[in-house]
Amino acid sequence: MESLITIRDLSEPQLRAILSLSFQIKKNPEKFSSLLKGKTVLQLFVENSTRTKLSFETAVRKLGGANIAFTGGASSMSKGESLLDTVQTIQQYGVDAIVMRHSSGGAIDWISKAVGLPAINAGDGQHEHPTQAILDAFTLLEHWKISPDASSPLAGKRVIIAGDILHSRVARSNIHSFSKLGAEIILVAPKTLLPSDLSLFPKVTMMNRWDTSQGKEILAGVDAVMMLRLQLERQKGAFIPSLPEYRHFWGLTRERASLLKSSAVILHPGPMNAGVEIDSEVAESSQSLILKQVENGVYARMGVLACNS
Ligand code: CP
Question: Which atom belonging to ligand 1 lies closest to the Cα atom of 48?
Answer without folding.
Answer: 6
